[in-house]
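To the team - pyridoxal-5'-phosphate complex, inputs and output below.
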Amino acid sequence: MNPVLDLLLQGERLSTEQMAQVLGLSEVAIEAALKQLQAEGKLLGWRPVLNPEAGEETIVRAVIEVKISPEREGGFDKLALRISRFDEVESCHLMSGSYDLLLFCSGKSLRAVATFVSERLSTIDGVLSTATHFLLRTYKEQGYLLVANPDVADKPAVSP
Amino acid sequence: MSAKRFIANHVVDLPRSGIRDFFAIVSQMPQAVSLGIGEPDFVTPWHIREAAIYALEKGKTSYTDNRGLIRLRQEISRYVESDFGVSYRPDTEILVAVGVSEALDIALRALINPGDKVLYHEPCYVSYSPSILLAHGIPVGVPTLAKDQFALDPAALEAAWEPGCKILLLNFPTNPTGGVANRKVLERIAHFAQEKDLLVISDEIYAELTFDGEHVSIASLPGMRDRTLFLHGFSKAFAMTGFRIGYGCGPAELIEAMMKVHQYSMMCAPILSQEAAIEALRNGRPAVARMKEQYHKRRDFIVRRFNEAGLDCHTPQGSFYTFPSVATSGLKSLDFCHRLLKEEEVAIVPGTAFGPSGEGFVRASFSMSYENLIKAADRIERMVGRLVDSGATAAVNNAS
Ligand SMILES: Cc1ncc(COP(=O)(O)O)c(C=O)c1O
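Output:
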């Protein structure tokens, strides 16, 4: 894997200068690598991972199972992309199994999400049915556990 | 009257660990960045912790066979055979202990007659010399040198031999130097052990954390299995220090002798740790590989930074320790560490804590986040810069 990407994925927040130190590259080289990763579409963005339980953003999240009918040209892709473009849709995946698309959606309120489903999503031609499940509580978010860090204070600062 | 009169002479005479002295100071400074830790910064992989929880839920709260659960000994037997190339029988040739610490202690107690001499290379793990003394043996230290990357020079070992030497204690990769021994060196050491009829105790607790080249166990060399006690554990590679679990493998008579000491002093290793260890051996390889990769990268980084900072730092071939020289600072190890702690709030361990040959060196662990490694390296660089400048000024003043 690209070493810059590999380092980013470890999730430590490092400045360009620090990343340059760690990887033994120049800061210019780090910036160039990041630009290239974005240009190649490998690195999509820089959004922080928030704790949904911490109440920093009051949003309601739902997963929605969607059945759609594939089109003669473009199969599922055209419709999936069309659905993906809605701001409410955080991510959209084509699934194997009893439904076709799985959406992760969010909105300011339960009502906002419900409205999106009933007025936007289900009225689209080709959407056969939807099943909406609201998220009640999060225990792990994108690899981060939502529990207090283990009490490392017990670990001696110097040991043999 | 002081209660001290009750203490046994050989315990009174036992020096305190240099690490403990240093720890006492560091613990007053919670804000300090510490590269002084001798354990993984990772917590035990979850699947292993989960196995311990499951065992607890199942009500596994009893003693076990003194030797350890047979299922664990079977897993150990398979693991040691596949990774170290020596085969041991689970029923008679393997003993599960409370860490390599206990395995080493009972081995020495089972083998040493008062006055027997034990050869070991230093700088080394802080317990070696005291453990030998506590078993009424006589430690005979053989220095390893920076010019050899702290590998044991067989010629130095041969020169250090004296009548009465019975045991040779080896530790590769080495805490604190990261030194290793390649096959050629080990073959010569093995030959020496056979010639002098020495029993070898080989502490291979950092074996999985060998970054360059293959790890070779001396027990796997021709003729060595019958005169070697192979000690290993879960603390380092599996990040299981708190589980306190390790093992010894060797000829049945020796394991039986260790068993005698173990059954009367320890009874058995904790059952929950044994269950966790079974899971570690069955399914822990991917986690070990992931952690090792991290250590490897951090090693390359911190060695480079120390050298840039003006400390002469060889590349440790294994373990998670660097052992740079502080010669450029003009200070002794202990003074360097004290000043670094006071002036820059970075804790590292003076090399002298690991034996007299550690003078002029310090141990800095890279079992630490990049953020802290960077912080520590920056601060060390700052202090070395100051010291070198003032040293240069002093030299000019002396000359004029
Ligand atoms: C060389 C060496 N041997 C043994 C030990 C003790 O290991 P355990 O946790 O298995 O008792 C250590 C721990 O630092 C060590 O560095």
